[in-house]
Write a structure and sequence with these properties.
The structure is a single chain. This protein has 296 residues and is of the alpha+beta class. It is built from nine helices and 14 strands. The chain has three domains: 136 residues, 2-Layer Sandwich (Uridine Diphospho-n-acetylenolpyruvylglucosamine Reductase, domain 2), CATH 3.30.43.10; 111 residues, Uridine Diphospho-n-acetylenolpyruvylglucosamine Reductase, domain 3, CATH 3.30.465.10; 34 residues, no CATH class. The radius of gyration is 24 Å and the shape is elongated. The C terminus is likely disordered.
Length: 296
C-alpha cells in the first residue's frame, strides 16, 4: 500500500470512531446541547407524573431504535393507527428494532408505572395500539418474515403484516391461516385466535403457531411452546395481549395450490328454505373436513 493510500485509509478509519462511540438509540427532539426537557405522562392508574429529562435521555441511549417525543419529526405518523377515531398522543414512542429494545422499554415503563400500549400492525379496532400520555411501544420496524420451505415453517416478527407473510410464503407454494385484510398485524390477529379463509381446512391462526417469543410485564424474555412454558403457550393462543409483548411467532405452513376459487354465491329468495336446509344437512360433513364445494 502506498503512503498516500495508507493515509487515506487511516483518515477514513478514524472518522468512523466518533460515530461508533455514540449510543445506539436516537432521541428525536432533544433541546440545545442535547438537553431533554422533563416529559408529562400518566401512569397505568391514570395519575399524572413527570418523567425527568435525564431519565428519558438515558432510555434513548439504551435503545437501538428511536425514541420519539411529541415535538419529534415523525411523531404524528408514528402515533396514527388504522382506526382514525382514536387521535391519541403518547408521551413517548419507542420504535423498537428487536426484542432487546422491547425489554428496555418495558422495564422503563415498569419502573415509572407508565400507561403502555403496544403497536403491532396498528389495526386494533378498539384503539388499543395507541395510548394518551403513556408509552407507546411500536413494533412496526420489527417486520421481518423468514420462510423455511424444508421444515414448512415461517418465523415472523411481531410487527409484520399479514400481506408480508402471505407474499413470502406463497412464493414457495405455502400458506397458513391468516386474516382477510393484508394490512392487519400478525400479532394481534393470532393472539386473538385468527380467523381466515383457510381456517376450515387448517384451523385458526393460533392453531398453526408452533412457538412464540415474548417479553413479559417485568421485562423478562421467554420462549413458549409445547415443551417450554406450555401453560403460557396455551394461554397465548387466543388469550389476546394479556401475557406479554410478542416479538416473534413461528407458524406451521401448508402446501396450497396456485389456483383459488372465490366469489359470492347468490340464490333466489324463493329457494331460501331449500338453501338453508341444504346447509343444515351438510354442516356436519364440512366440520369433519369435507369440502362444501363437493356438494354445490
Amino acid at each position: 500500500m502506498s503512503v498516500m493510500r495508507r493515509r487515506q485509509f487511516l483518515r477514513s478509519t478514524l472518522a468512523t470512531v466518533p460515530a461508533a462511540l455514540l449510543p445506539y438509540g436516537k432521541l428525536f427532539a432533544a433541546g440545545e446541547a442535547g438537553v431533554v426537557n422533563d416529559v408529562e405522562a400518566v401512569t397505568n392508574s391514570g395519575k399524572q407524573v413527570i418523567l425527568k429529562g435525564a431519565d428519558v435521555k438515558d432510555l434513548a441511549a439504551r435503545l437501538r431504535g428511536d425514541l420519539l417525543l411529541r415535538d419529534s419529526a415523525g411523531y404524528d405518523a408514528a402515533r396514527r393507527v388504522w382506526n382514525a377515531a382514536f387521535d391519541r398522543h403518547p408521551a413517548l414512542i419507542a420504535r423498537c428494532t428487536g426484542a432487546a429494545d422491547v425489554m428496555e422499554a418495558v422495564k422503563f415503563a415498569a419502573a415509572n408505572q407508565l400507561l403502555v400500549s403496544v403497536r403491532g400492525g396498528g389495526h386494533s379496532l378498539s384503539g388499543q395500539s395507541v395510548c394518551e400520555k403513556g408509552l407507546m411501544i411500536d413494533l412496526s420496524q420489527m417486520n421481518s418474515v423468514r420462510i423455511d420451505p424444508l421444515r414448512k415453517v415461517a418465523l415472523v416478527e411481531g410487527g409484520a403484516l399479514l400481506g408480508a407473510l402471505d407474499r413470502e410464503a406463497l412464493a414457495l407454494g405455502l400458506a397458513t391461516t391468516a386474516g382477510t385484510v393484508s394490512h392487519t398485524g400478525v400479532g394481534g390477529l393470532t393472539l386473538g385466535g385468527g380467523f381466515g379463509r383457510l381456517c376450515r381446512r387448517f384451523g385458526l391462526s393460533c392453531d398453526n403457531v408452533r412457538g412464540i417469543d415474548l417479553v413479559t410485564a417485568d421485562g423478562e424474555f421467554l420462549n413458549a411452546n409445547n415443551q417450554q412454558n406450555p401453560d403460557l403457550f396455551w394461554g397465548l393462543r387466543g388469550g389476546g395481549g394479556n401475557f406479554g409483548i410478542v416479538t416473534t411467532l413461528e407458524y406451521r405452513l401448508h402446501h396450497v395450490g396456485p389456483i383459488v376459487v372465490s366469489g359470492p354465491v347468490f340464490h333466489p329468495a324463493a329457494k331460501a328454505r331449500e338453501v338453508l336446509r341444504f346447509h343444515v344437512d351438510h354442516a356436519p360433513v364440512v366440520a369433519e373436513g369435507g369440502e362444501l364445494l363437493d356438494y354445490l
